[in-house]
Design a protein that fits this description.
Blueprint (H helix, E strand, L loop, with lengths): L2 H7 L26 E4 L5 E4 L6 H8 L3 H7 L17 E4 L5
Antiparallel strand pairs: 1-2, 2-3
Length: 98
Amino acid sequence: MPTSYLRSFNPTATLAAGTVLDLRGRNLPQRGANGTFDEQADGSGTYTVKPEDSFLGLTSRFGVPQYAIRAANASIRGMDGVLSVEPGESITIPSSRR
């Protein structure tokens, strides 16, 4: 992985022994999770849904299980990994930090 990718995933990280780096790229669009993410200090945030987004894409991008995304958004319904929200809607993505 190029250093520039690591830097884009971890803009404030200083590389030193014991540093934890994000390799998912949660702030970068990915297939199945191409919307924008406004992250809060605790790691949670608001995600704006794009066409063709899926639960699989969201769980991959944010490292948060599907059940946690559903629990944080009572209005979400879906079957077989398909989101039943409209493009442009905002949903809450809970923090994957422990």
